[in-house]
Design goal:
CATH class of the largest domain: Alpha Beta
Number of domains: 4
CATH superfamily of the largest domain: FAD/NAD(P)-binding domain
Shape: globular
CATH topology of the largest domain: FAD/NAD(P)-binding domain
Oligomer: single chain
Strand content: 15-25%
CATH architecture of the largest domain: 3-Layer(bba) Sandwich
Number of helices: 21
Length: about 625
């Protein structure tokens, strides 16, 4: 520590904390990142992968805004896959398998290159709060460090307790102790906390597995990247594998159900619905004879393997016996068993959209402390909290992304207006405007904002403007190019597409669902070194789905009108007797700032909204 007063202090160096610290410091705020262990900055606590369904879109959005998760993922990738390619482009989601050690190493390297970012190894066990405003932190070593804003990104460490069968011990992650003191202090100041639970699967010795009896899951033949910058291109990849549980495995697992704290109720916290333990899967889907197990390597130069799909808190001997009944795992050797962890979180309805707490000025929450699960969800919150904490120190207005602007906007709006009763995970189905929020156009949606607030680097801006020029020039070429029937009909017939009878523009042929733009360009000898695969793909989507895109934009604009109708901060909802009792209660608790936010609060019906429109829409 070299400063007596920081602009921003970030507590915790996981995915949320790292993005928060980087954003604040890169914007020019003197920032301190405090973590209990400098040796595990950017640790992948659970699976060694980034992205996936909807999560991949979030990583691209983080990158477009000037964050680091996409860059770090590319630099440590051992496999790349674009998921959901059989569906429409709104569903395409990039995913990387990553080298766990390289991932953390890359994060630390990038953080240490930021001039205005300092580091400190210590535990924060209290906040300095004066007149309902945070003014610093207190550490386990007895130091008081002052700051204008504090971001808490405590992950699973707030009063964390780990469970393996009937054994339990304090900690937020294997080998690391829990953080105590912060929850109790904030609850005493009026914030509401609760408990959540999550689990992690065993890590095993890859040399003890028989991959020959499993299904190989290779990476894409032409792997892409997360970042819109010139990050390393994957030329070599490691395969994952798939195997399955069976009836014998399920029967063996059931013998330990009465000793599984995630299953028998000993852990009272709220658990993840969409990433359940193997115990929950067997119980909830008792009619299924098998469940998938994804066998994921932990890196280039390690024998450690992550057993995705086998998350559990069963006794260790039951885990070993059951996993050895899985095909390919007959002789498996364990590095460490799966375990469950329960921890404190704060109900996110207590936050503004800036992620600042409503009760304490200058205090921001990001990541699992807000009830989310997943690296990507945490990182995106950290980025926005870092941006807004830094801006608050200069009395600049906060940045809040709209639901039609980014999945990050959907995530934060859902948390703040609806809250969560279980670990919140992002899915494409949560977004109303999926065709607008594609993974390929995240830079187009968000890099101009990054430039406006001062976070985008010169290199990023240069590449962004070059790509925009390439997109324009390709569209112009397709609109200008006339195509004769004899040039293209053979190609069209091969693609089961109706032949043309007269000259048409290449653009009109590109609208056809059977015609791939890249193949059409090859037939017509349309080439330019600036028209990369990414440019061609984005152009194709824009052409083919132009009608759907326009409809979503119109719908988004209509809904935005509600966002422009303000609700006074001190308005008494109980005074409107025509509102339902539930609406009065929910609106009073959430304190929405406009009708758009009010419309998205669970429990506010369309009739309630009509009453509010009459009251405020005049």
């Amino acid at each position: 520590m070299i400063h007596s007063l920081y602009d921003v202090i970030v507590v915790g160096a996981g995915h949320a904390g790292n993005e928060a610290a980087a954003a604040a410091a890169n914007l020019g705020a003197q920032t301190l990142l405090i973590t209990m262990n400098m040796g595990v900055i950017g640790q992948m606590s659970c699976n060694p992968a980034m992205g996936g369904i909807a999560k991949g879109q979030i990583v691209r959005e983080i990158d477009a805004l000037g964050g680091y998760s996409g860059i770090v993922s590319d630099e440590s990738a051992i496999q790349f896959r674009m998921l959901n390619r059989s569906k429409g482009p709104a569903m395409w989601s990039p995913r990387t398998q990553n080298d766990r050690m390289l991932f953390a190493q890359s994060w630390r390297m990038h953080l240490e290159s930021i001039p205005k970012l300092d580091f400190m190894q210590d535990m924060v066990n209290g906040l300095v709060i004066e007149n309902n405003r945070v003014s610093g932190v207190r550490t386990g070593m007895g130091q008081t460090i002052r700051a204008k804003a504090v971001i808490v990104t405590a992950g699973t460490f707030l009063n964390g307790v780990m469970h393996i069968g009937e054994k339990q011990f304090g900690g937020g992650r294997s080998g690391e102790r829990a953080a105590e003191g912060i929850t109790e202090q904030l609850v005493s100041l009026g914030l509401t906390a609760d408990r959540m639970k999550t689990g992690t699967p065993p890590r095993v010795d890859g040399r003890s597995l028989d991959y020959s009896v499993m299904e190989e899951q290779p990476g894409d033949e032409q792997p892409q990247r997360f970042s819109f910058l010139d990050t390393p291109q994957l030329h070599q990849q490691r395969s994952c594998h798939i195997t399955y549980t069976n009836r014998q495995v399920h029967d063996l697992l059931r013998t330990g159900f009465d000793r599984s704290p995630m299953f028998n109720g000993r852990i009272q916290g709220l658990g993840p619905r969409y990433c359940p333990s193997i115990e929950d899967k067997i119980d909830r889907f008792a009619d299924k004879d098998a469940h998938q197990i994804f066998v994921e390597p932990e890196g280039w130069n390690t024998i450690e393997v992550y057993v995705n799909g086998f998350s559990t808190s069963l006794p260790e001997e039951v885990q070993v016996q059951a996993l050895r009944s899985v095909r390919g795992f007959e002789h498996v050797k364990f590095f460490r068993p799966g375990y469950a962890v329960e921890y404190d979180f704060f109900h996110p309805t207590q936050l503004h959209h800036s992620l600042e707490t409503k009760a304490i000025q200058g205090l921001y929450f990001a990541g699992q402390i807000n009830g989310t699960t997943g690296y990507e969800e945490a990182a995106s919150q950290g980025l926005m909290a870092g941006i807004n904490a830094a801006r608050s120190t200069w009395n600049q207005p906060p940045i809040a992304l709209n639901r039609d602007q980014a999945y990050i906007g959907v995530l934060i709006d859902d948390l703040v207006t609806k809250g969560t009763k279980e670990p919140y995970r992002m899915f494409t189905s949560r977004a109303e405007f999926r065709i607008l929020l594609r993974q390929d156009n995240a830079d187009e949606r968000l890099t101009p904002l990054s430039e406006e607030i001062g976070l985008a680097s010169e290199i990023r801006l240069k590449r962004f403007h070059e790509k925009q020029e390439s997109l324009k020039s390709l569209k112009k070429e397709l609109n200008a190019r006339s195509v004769e029937p004899e040039t293209v009909n053979s190609f069209l017939e091969q693609r089961n597409s109706e032949p043309i009878k007269q000259k048409v523009r290449a653009h009109s042929l590109a609208t056809r669902p059977q015609v791939e733009l890249s193949e059409l360009m090859e037939v017509l000898s349309i080439t330019n070194e600036h028209w990369t695969t990414d440019v061609i793909q984005s152009t194709s989507i824009e052409i083919k789905y132009a009608g759907y895109i326009e409809k979503e934009r119109e719908m988004a604009n209509k809904l935005k009108r509600l966002d422009h109708i303000a609700i006074p901060a001190d308005f008494d909802f109980h005074a409107i007797s025509s509102l339902s009792a539930e609406a009065r209660e929910k609106l009073s608790a959430a304190r929405p700032s406009n009708l758009g936010q009010a419309s998205r609060i669970s429990g506010v019906s369309q009739s309630d909204l009509a009453v509010l429109v009459v009251r405020f829409g005049r």
